[in-house]
Amino acid sequence: MTHDVAGAWERFGRDDPYFRFLNAARYHTAGEPRSVRDELFASGEAHVDALIETIRSELVPGFEPHRALDFGCGVGRVLLPIARRAHEVLGAPCRA
């Protein structure tokens, strides 16, 4: 049996991109209505805020991201908030 992982992710991205990242029924059909899509992207903002706050409180006080890599960036739910906070960002799709 062969597994076409890259092909599967291509289909997910084409057919139902938002559902694949937050697996909830309301994210089917490309995030319609717009408020649902906005909710999905707001969750990325909250995730990045929490991550940076954890880094600052537990590891590096005053941390400011300079460069970041989002491996498997998909629709940009996390990539876009990182790009607003870092000087340089690279989004790399996951390829198997």
Describe what you observe in this structure.
The protein has 96 residues and is mainly alpha-helical. Helices cover 49% and strands 10% of the residues. The chain has four helices and two strands. The protein has helices at residues 5-15, 28-31, 34-58, 79-85, and strands at 67-71, 88-92. A two-stranded parallel sheet has the order 1-2. Helix 3 (34-58) packs across helix 4 (79-85). The longest helix is centred in the middle third of the chain and has 25 residues, at 34-58. The chain is globular. The mean pLDDT is 81.
Computed structural class? mainly alpha
Tally of DSSP β-strands: 2
Question: Helix share of residues?
Answer: 40-55%
Give the termini separation: 16 Å
The fraction of residues in strands falls at 5-15%
Q: What radius of gyration results from the CA coordinates?
A: 15 Å
Question: Which key terms come to mind for this protein?
Answer:
4 helices; 96 residues; two-stranded parallel sheet; 49% helix; mainly alpha
In short:
The chain is mainly α and 96 residues long.
Write the layout of secondary structure elements.
Elements: H1 5-15, H2 28-31, H3 34-58, E1 67-71, H4 79-85, E2 88-92
Parallel strand pairs: 1-2
